[in-house]
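Notes from hallway chat w/ T.B., transcribed later so I don't forget. T.B. wanted the structure written out for a chain they're using in a teaching module, and asked if we could keep both sequence and structure tokens in one place. Agreed to drop them here.
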Amino acid sequence: MEKNPKLTVLYEKLRGKSFEIDRDAMSIGRKDSCDIQLADGSVSSHHADIIRVEQNGEVNYILRDNDSTNGTKVNNEPVSEYVLKNSDLISFGHVEVLFDGASHGDDDIHITHTIDLGNTTNNNTTTTQTLTNFSARAMQEKHKNAQTNLLMTGIIIVGGLLVLGVVIFTIFQMFAGK
């Protein structure tokens, strides 16, 4: 029994969301009207399309970029049109998804693609979103540091005004005494 392929989101904000490719043509983008909606600012309103085609008795899925602002990449290579293979890593802007090709039952042949990130031209390449430590303790510490910095700034300003007042008072007394 043939199963439809799917796209599984890897991007942190939408991680785990999965979309079945169950039609001959599906639109991908930020807008509600898209078949596959990826609600992220780096994704164009109608970013790309996936088109199911039969060629020589074989079903293929073609990914076509729609001149998107932030581009479409497959396995970290920019593409305008690409025939998808099982386990391809696709980037729509900053949103990364995994293409899980159609299955044909228990006798599936699974192919794993290795992506050499060391040979890329962009040294900032990542397959996961970098996370910042947002633990309660870290947030309390950050808040405490901000309060301390504000208090120290206030003390320095008040001290500076006092010194300035003493200097002005001394100068006034010197001229008044003559």
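Follow-up for T.B.: Residues 14 and 175 are 73 Å apart (CA to CA). Might be a good example for the class.
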